[in-house]
Structures are given as C-alpha cells and as structure tokens.
Fold:
Amino acid sequence: MKNQSVEFIMAGRRQRRRRWVIITGLLTVLACVLCCAMLLLGSTIYPVKEVIRALSGEQIQGASFAINTIRLPRMLAGLFAGFAFGIAGYIFQTMLRNPLANPNVIGITSGSSAAAVFCITVLHASGAVVSIAAVIAGLVTVVIMYILSRGRSFSIGRLILIGIGIQAMLDAVVSYLLLMSAQQDLSAALRWLAGSLNGSQMHALPPLVITVFIFAPIVIILGRHLSILELGEQSASSLGVSTDKTRIVLILSSVIMIAIATATTGPIAFVSFLAGPIANRLVGVSFSNIIPAGLVGVNLVLAADLIGQFAFAYRFPVGIITGLLGAPYLIYLLIRMNRRGEF
Structure:
C-alpha cells in the first residue's frame, strides 16, 4: 500500500513536470514565431531569406536599414522588457500571496514614471538621463514602501496598501507635471508614459539585456524558495529559509529588472499583472513558473505590439493594447476578491 501511494505521487509529479515542459516549450516556440513576425512585417514585408541576409551583415538596399535599425531593436526591446516584466510580476504576486501585488498596482513603475516625466518636462533631458532617473526612482520607491510596511513585523497587506497610496500620490505628481509642461515636451512625455517600442535603438538596449542576464538567473535559482515563503513567515523560518534575506534579494532583483525595463520602453501596462496568472493557469502551480511567466510576458508584449501596428487604421503604442487587455481582468479580479471577502 505504501509503495503504491509513493508510486501514485511520483506519477502525478512526472505528469505535472511533463505539462510544465510542454507548455514552456510551446510558449518558447510562440515567442520565436512572434520575434520572426516582428522582423518580417512592416510597411514592407520582406522574405525570410532577405531578412537572414540583412541580419548576417549583407547590405541590401532598404532592407538592411529597416531590419537592423528599426525592427531588430524593436523586437529585442519587446523580448527582454517582456521577460523582465513577466518575471517581476510573478515574483511579487507569488511572494506576497496576492494577485494585486505587482509593480503596476503598488507604485513601483509610478516612481519610475514620475522621475522620467520630471526629467523630460522640467529638466528637458532625454536618453540616458531619463533612464538613470527612472531606475533610481524605482529603487527608492520600493525602499520607502518596504520601510513603511515593516512596523514591528513585515505585513503583506500593509505593503500593498502603502504601495497603492504611493502610486496615487505619484500619479498625481505626473498629472501636475503634464499640466505644467511646455507643449514641445508634452508629446515626448505622453509617448513615454504610454509604454512604447517605437524608436527603440540598439545603443539603448545593453543595460536592459545585461540586467536580465544577470538578475533573471538569480531569481530563477531562488524561485524554489517562493513556495516555502507562501507558507508564511514562521513556517518558512522553521524550514530553514532566511526569509528577510531571500525576500530582499528577490525584491531587489525584480525591482532592478522592472526599473530598467520601464526606463527602456516606458511602463507597458498590465504585462507584469497578467503574466503570472496566465502562466499559473496554463502550467499549474506545482512547480516554479518563473520562466513560463517571463515567456508569457514576452508573448504579451510582442503580440500586443503587432496588434497595435497592424490591426487598426492608426498605429497604437504597445502599452495601450496591453492596457485594453489588462483593465477588464483587473475589474474581474477585484469583483472576485470582494465576493470572497478578501478586502
């Protein structure tokens, strides 16, 4: 009987692992297809052979510039930013055990946005200055939130409420800056706030690429502790997990990725909010879904950008499309949580 029970448990575990591998593989294939579509499609549709020749360095009139200077940076920005947004959102939602606990809702991206808009509208800065200010502001925002939520002990509910309050305050600051800004700065600020891959340039991507390559493995390695942290502070400590250190490393890694991604593309709405729940629904919750959540983020950003470019008479930034997808889910989630008495 005991051997049968163990065999039954192991069979279920193998089945869940097989599902994880299959879904992750399908998400990877879909991401590759979308990356190819980003390179092939545009005002001119180039054949695959011509795209490969242009990427290999061969000079083709018209195609080389369009592919290497416009489409490739746009695709890479969406790829790495989507992965960063997806991972960061999953970490916050899982670690804090609340689907509302993601960088968009609790004010982290609002800190970056306020700093960026201040640089654009008041300092009349651009490029690296805006990116650096957005990263620093994102880090400062999360440090303030963490300090205020500590009290005598760390409280998830307190952190979320403080984050929502900080977000409201920073959004008011952004609105004030936009109202007081000069006309020539307003369009640049609004374009940044919408979240867009337009104008992505290769020389601006290294910070984002390096950040993802450094911090994503750290988050994936520590991901095995997430399920333990979900058991609560006391249970995790009794199982030998250094809760404060693990939480700080995960939060800092996630915040740095989200801040750099936001500085590169602007705050692409709801990607970090949607990626985790979609990954959990597709794969299940038996294993760490950090990688699937990152891949869902990639697919959301790339698919939304393609929709914004080609599905309508006018071209829309990617953030508007993801906002249209995420807003109904947020309303549904709030209604469901209210019915469950979680507020």
